[in-house]
């Protein structure tokens, strides 16, 4: 009668003996070598590491101020989105709003690469037939520069209620003045420019 796989074979015992602990003890699988192969760290639950999950009360929010003068729009928006999400913190949790407040000044002096001032379009729709409105980014930066930065950052945040909560911590101003001096925002250096 042929041996079936569940009965075990000498080849499985041979493969098991290749483990150093079993080879030293001269044990086979049927002789209880399974207890030898386990490391001592698996024995007690006191040695197990626990995953840290922050609570809402653990969140400490800082205020940052960014000067957008001469900065490239997309690169600046990527840095701002990182701060708003809280990915710069060691306690980052993707399911929580861990980010800080960001104040952007001089939004009107933002820079776009290439010929995007003339080619890139800001589009919105009223919801009615024929309600599409298009504006060149050059005109948008001249009239409402805050919208350009807010739209770029919004696209880099989660597209759900968490992302909408994060976007509320972004404050954008076209000029060099802002009303958040009492929060004592720290200057944020952004690479590029």
Name some characteristics of this structure.
single chain; 193 residues; alpha/beta; Ribosomal Protein L13p, Chain: A; 2 domains; 4-stranded parallel β-sheet; two-stranded antiparallel sheet; 8 helices; 13% strand
Question: How would you describe this structure to a colleague?
Answer:
It is built from eight helices and six strands; from the N terminus they run αααβαβαββαααββ. α6 packs across α7. The chain is an alpha/beta fold and 193 residues long. It folds into two domains: 39 residues, no CATH class; 131 residues, Ribosomal Protein L13p, Chain: A, CATH 3.90.1180.
Task: Compose a concise summary of this entry.
This protein has eight helices and six strands; from the N terminus they run αααβαβαββαααββ. It is α/β, with parallel strands linked by helices and 193 residues long.
CATH homology superfamily of the largest domain: Ribosomal protein L13
Corresponding CATH architecture of the largest domain:
Alpha-Beta Complex
Question: Element order, helices and strands?
Answer: HHHEHEHEEHHHEE
Question: What is the gyration radius calculated from CA atoms?
Answer: 29 Å
Strand order of the largest sheet: 5-2-1-6
Low-confidence stretches: none
- CATH T-level fold name of the largest domain: Ribosomal Protein L13p, Chain: A
Distance between the termini: 79 Å
Got a strand count?
Answer: 6
Which overall shape is indicated by the principal axes computed on the Cα atoms?
globular
Determine the strand fraction and express it as a percent band.
Answer: 5-15%
């Amino acid at each position: 009668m042929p041996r079936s796989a569940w009965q075990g074979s000498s080849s499985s015992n041979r493969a098991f003996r290749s483990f150093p602990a079993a080879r030293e003890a001269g044990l086979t699988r049927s002789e209880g070598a399974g207890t030898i192969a386990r490391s001592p760290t698996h024995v007690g639950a006191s040695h197990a590491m626990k995953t840290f999950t922050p609570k809402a009360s653990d969140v400490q929010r800082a205020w940052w101020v960014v000067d957008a003068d001469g900065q490239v729009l997309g690169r600046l928006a990527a840095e701002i989105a990182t701060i708003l999400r809280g990915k710069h913190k060691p306690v980052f949790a993707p399911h929580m709003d861990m980010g800080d407040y960001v104040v952007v000044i001089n939004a009107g002096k933002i820079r776009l690469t290439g010929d995007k001032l003339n080619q890139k379009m800001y589009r919105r729709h009223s919801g009615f037939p024929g309600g599409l409105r298009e504006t060149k980014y050059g005109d948008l930066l001249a009239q409402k520069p805050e919208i350009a930065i807010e739209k770029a950052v919004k696209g880099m945040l989660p597209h759900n209620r968490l992302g909408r909560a994060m976007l509320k911590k972004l404050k954008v101003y076209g000029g060099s003045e802002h009303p958040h001096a009492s929060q004592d925002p720290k200057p944020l250096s952004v690479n590029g420019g």
